[in-house]
Amino acid sequence: MPSAAYPGQVSDTLFDDAGAEAARGQEPLAVRMRPRTLDEVVGQRHLLGEGSPLRRLVEDDAPMSVFLWGPPGTGKTTLATVVSRVTKRRFVELSAVNAGVKDVRAVVDDARRRMGMHGTRTLLFVDEVHRFNRTQQDALLPAVENRWVSFIGATTENPFFSVVSPLLSRSLLLSLESLEEADVRALVDRALADERGLGGRYTLSDDGADHLVRLAGGDGRRSLTYLEAAALVAGPAPRPSPPSGDASGEALPDAGPVTITADHVERAVDRHAVRYDRSGDQHYDVVSAFIKSMRGSDPDAALHYLARMIEAGEDPRFIARRLVVHASEDVGMADPTALQTAVAAAQAVELIGMPEARINLAQAVIHISLAPKSNAVIAAIDAAAADVRAGLAGPVPAHLRDGHYRGAAELGHGKGYRYAHDFPGGVAPQQHAPDGLVGREYYRPTQHGAERRFGEILQRIKGVLRGGGQRG
Fold first, then answer.
1. What's the rounded Cα separation, in Å, for the pair 215 and 236?
2. Based on the domain organization, do 26 and 153 belong to the same domain?
């Protein structure tokens, strides 16, 4: 039942099967459709499978302290409420945005009192727990350590950076993942059919479903919010006709459900439906144009295709992988920092996710587009691989072979090897390639960007390596 005991509190509820859910129709669709059991939770199979830590905690009804870490809309609040409902614990929710130490202590003191007087156990759920400062987090420690409450903290930030070590070490850390397309579709289908949701009064066209799923971006709450808005745009659904028909006594025809189309979704969300099939020609055409625009040093065109992919719901990890490949394939040693930027963008995608990571991806696109171009790296490895496939391998020169094991000296392994650090410039005149490949050149630097300097360095090195004219 609602309570005003805690100023920072969102809800204070004891879940039971007999509890009436008042004003249910006034709640947002995402709230009405919140799962009631673990089996109703969509996605997060790695956390909810048989024998998983979370399921064991629930089924064994054990005291718990858990951090749920994942992107928005992946089910953190849902899991907390389901755990509370299944385990019959009193559910208290605080938001770290507006709760303080006083609120935390009030919840803990009340939980201890209720446990002592009535045996009522409390589950404390703190949303956005990373917003708590160290003092606020420290206030949770006694309750967690003494199990006065079961604690679940939800965060979109890496807990290893945002949560104090003593609290984290006493808790189980569970990582949630963005929902797959099939999971989002399952959520939407359930909301369309379930009486708690739209109750079969609406259907969703194929193009409307595709657009809605793309816009959701793996966020289940967002998908239901958009569905509810699109239903309002589509117009009120007809109510079932009474069995006796109209006033004249004639039976009324069944108007059927209202169909929500992509146009309704566009108007509700104010986002145009981008035509982009991730498994069809459009996908490959856009990706091809994206890569060729960067190769052609046209950052504006490359940014257009980047935006097109992002708006269509392309997996940002796929985009990041293409950037990492392109940084070496078409820039390479002409600007070695391009690869660093691309890898950093890929790491940012994993660390902070979308939509913020679009900025990191855009930075990498601009860097690669403006960088001097060279395909010398891919040409070098492909040429070397071609020789290997053609059988041009040959034995490793004896002076380069491992000479550390017993009997190696008798075989002549390592004999005559020249230690590079003993020579001026750290380069020793000796042969490194197998006999049949002496003189083969794979890496041919261009005169573009930093590769001009690397080319000059390479020529000086080759002069030393070959200057002695000897094998070892």
1. 23
2. yes
| 367 Cβ contact list (under 8 Å, min separation 6) | 337, 338, 341, 342
Choice between 29 and 392, residue whose per-residue pLDDT is larger: 29
- One domain for residues 128 and 24: yes
Q: Which two tokens stand for residue 186?
A: 């399952």
Tell whether pTM > 0.85: no
Q: Is the distance from CB of 156 to CB of 29 less than 8 angstroms?
A: no
Whether residues 344 and 460 share a domain: the answer is no
pLDDT band at residue 146, thresholds of 50, 70 and 90?
confident
Name the residue range of residue 77's domain.
Answer: 9-175
What is the predicted pLDDT for the residue at 471?
Answer: 40
Of the listed ranges 184-188, 406-410, 432-436, the one predicted with least confidence? 406-410
Please report the DSSP string for 90-121 in residue order: EEEEEETTT--HHHHHHHHHHHHHHHHHH---
Q: Where are the alpha helices (DSSP H) in 235-356?
A: 262-269, 281-295, 299-311, 316-326, 337-352
Instruction: Return the closest-CA partner of residue 464 out of 424, 410, 407.
Output: 424
Distance (Å, whole) CA 152 – CA 107: 14
For range 444-452, the mean pLDDT: 88
Tokens of 453: 């300097």
In terms of Cβ atoms closer than 10 Å to its own Cβ (0-12, 13-18, 19+), residue 209 is buried
- Residues in a beta bridge with 126: 94, 153
Q: What is the CATH number of the domain that holds 104?
A: 3.40.50.300
| Cα 168 from Cα 165, distance rounded (Å) | 5
Under 8 Å between Cβ of 74 and 220: yes
- Neighbouring C-beta atoms of residue 298, cutoff 10 Å: 14
Mean pLDDT along residues 441-447: 88
- Cα(328)–Cα(54) distance, rounded to whole angstroms? 43
Question: Which amino acid type is present at position 452?
Answer: R
Dig out the tokens for 46 from the structure.
Answer: 């790695």
The interaxial angle of helices 206-216 and 262-269, nearest 10 deg, is: 30
